Amino acid sequence: MSELHDALKQIGAIDWADVPKDNLGPWMKQLFETGELICNSVPPPPGGTDYEQSKPTQPKPDTAKSAKEVVNSDARPVAPHPEHAGLQKAWGKPVKLNAKENPLGISVYKMAGKDRHGAWFARRQVLEGVSITKMRKAMQREFAESLAESGGPGAGNVRGIGGDRRLDKKEVDDVGNMDALQLSAQFPGPTTPREFIALILTSDNALTNKTSQDKHAIPRHYMVVSKPLTHPDTPDREGYVKGTYESVEMIREIPLHPVPDKAEEAGDEKHELNPVEWIMVTRSDPGGGIPRFMVERGTPGSIAADVSKFLDWACAKGDIPDADADPELQKKTQAADAQQKATPSAPPPAQQPAQQQGGLFASITGAVEAGIEAYAPASVANYTHNYMHPEDDASDSSSSSDSSSAASFASAKDHHHHDMGDHPSQHPAHDPAAVIASTDSLGAVRSTSSTTLPMGSSPHDKELRKIDKDRAKIEAKIHKKQDNEAVKLASHREKDPEDIAKYQEKYDAAMLKLKEKREKELAKLEQKREKEITKAQRKRSVQLNKDEANRVAKERDDFRDQVDMLKRENGLLREQMTDLQRENAILVDKVNKLGGIGALKEIKTEVQA
Fold it and tell me: What is the CATH architecture assignment of 2-259+269-292+318-354?
């Protein structure tokens, strides 16, 4: 697995002086081969249909008009070279995400880094409903879209990060393109904008025979390799925090229909029905002292959400222009924004909540928010969520597990105190109608009582339901006996009065014995019920105490981390204050030498005015 980590090192940060500008071809080819290895190392989605047996499911190409209309395909590509396929074990099993975080069912993976710069994340999926031609044009146009639009940090972005300035561009025949870009993005809320300097390599001729193992032609594809860049023309901008991201992103068709020659079948579009495989491997650092564990906490869900944002934008466009369709507008916009973006007076207000932004930067903002909600004290997390999601309702309609448990206990108690239904001894024992009426009444009570049974699936709820069933069986037997005795009594009415009196005494004795037996059985059942309720309450109380202790311990540790961070920031501020005071003293000394005390007084007067 060291081969994979060595490959990931190749997409790390680079200085502009180390880029071999006079010999870009071999260097770029090597990076694209590295990107191929990295993408092939990501496991394919589970299940699916073998390549030889797969068929497209869409009747026409590009039928999807939004991400909701794009479907996951069961088609799977040809297995890559064994050297690449053997690396898939390094990613382990997919990260578990709920349906809300991952509505498209994308396979997301996490792998610990070996260079102490954080974990790597990957996603892989196969789509139908959008062609590879449209996907490629969309990815080529993505940064050009924002370069042609003026505004604040990240203006015109498609997936969260927008292009501010193109620092350099090189095109190498039969290899690909290299762009050095100055990018920016804006966190939601009153936070400092982020700046990313990236060296972006793109190619539709990046794959080798290791993808198809010489069994098939190399499929159409498009690869983007992004490396953090240090460039001499991008000094630190005031009002921005520098972040970094490393990534490899690739789209690749599964060629169920081969691409026809230009001279043959020019009007045939079957090849545009081919499913599209989309793979991304990334790692990011938003800068600004945000703890790494907070970023990594929310990255998987944000990576999954990234897909919908891009597909909504790409599918909604009927005809996507080429990347350089408006070069003059891009240059003009970059020149007009140069002064405005150099020193922003204040961060502009966020136009969207963090959850609505997509792309790599959305994974950063989503990761930060998820980390805050998971690790910050409840009051801080609630404030942050309300700020970043003002449209959310403060109340949640779903119940927590604790409230569900409490409802179960309340239901059990209500059922315990429900009227048990006494034997109808107040009616004349010799009146069958009264006995039947009493039986019907008690049956109604049992029916009503059964509706209040706790419907939980815990062992205690099951035991309570079992007790109620046993009680219902006992009462059914008793009332059946009562009915039989009442019928016998009615049949003796036509006989001798002495026989009736004897039978009445016998009947009363039998009913008394039956009542005592019933009361004894019910007392046992009620005792068992009380025991189960008490046991469940005790268990829940212990769990609540344990949860509270864990929460307090976690908050304590978080506050300690915050205190350490504030101490470090305080130390940095003290150092900056010392430097400013020293610079101020030097300036005052020079002003005294050049213009005298009078000039210094004039400056103070102008400042105070």
Answer: 2-Layer Sandwich (3.30)
**Which amino acid is it at 208?**
T
Q: How many helices (H) and strands (E) does the chain have?
A: 14, 11
Nearest in space to 182 (alpha carbons), one of 170, 201, 195, 200: 195
Distance CA(90)–CA(146), nearest Å, equals 36
| SS3 category, 227 | strand
Give the model confidence (pLDDT) of 271-307 as tens digits.
889 999 999 999 988 887 778 887 888 888 888 888 8
Burial of residue 566 (CB within 10 Å: 0-12, 13-18, 19+) is: exposed
Q: Which two tokens stand for residue 90?
A: 């390094």
pLDDT in tens, 473-509: 777 777 777 677 666 666 655 556 677 777 778 878 8
- Are the beta carbons of 9 and 115 closer than 8 angstroms? yes
User: Which is higher by pLDDT, 318 or 584?
Assistant: 584
Task: Name the residue with tokens 């904008």.
Answer: 193
Reply yes or no on whether the pLDDT at 370 is more than 60: no
Torsional sign, CA 383, 385, 390, 392: negative
Could you give the residue ranges of the DSSP H alpha helices within 10-150? 24-40, 82-85, 132-147
Distance between CA atoms of residues 91 and 122, nearest Å: 9
Q: Which ranges of 41-149 does DSSP label H, i.e. alpha helix?
A: 82-85, 132-147
DSSP label at 148? T
Residue of 294, 434, 316, 302 lying closest to 356 (CA atoms): 302
The first and second tokens of residue 502, run together, are 């004897």
Residue 162: how many other CB atoms lie within 10 Å: 24
Band the pLDDT of 469: cuts 50, 70, 90: confident
For the cut 70, the answer to whether the pLDDT of residue 421 exceeds it is: no
Q: Which long-range contacts (CB under 8 A, 24 or more apart) does 569-578 make?
A: 569/289
- Classify residue 170 as left (phi > 0), alpha (psi -120 to 50) or beta: beta
Taking alpha carbons only, the member of 200, 241, 245 closest to residue 224 is 200
At 55-68, the pLDDT tens digits run 888 888 888 898 88
Are 46 and 108 a contacting pair, CB within 8 Å?
Answer: no
Does residue 289 contact residue 565 with C-beta atoms inside 8 Å? yes
Q: The pTM is what?
A: 0.57
Instruction: State the Rg of the chain over Cα.
Output: 37
In this predicted structure, what is the pLDDT of residue 152?
62
> How far apart are the C-alpha atoms of 95 and 101, rounded to whole Å?
12
**314 DSSP β-pair partners:** none
Task: Please state, as a whole number, how many other Cβ atoms lie within 10 Å of the Cβ of residue 178.
Answer: 22
598: Cβ contacts below 8 Å, ≥ 6 apart: none
How do the domains of the chain map onto residue ranges?
2-259+269-292+318-354, 401-548, 557-608
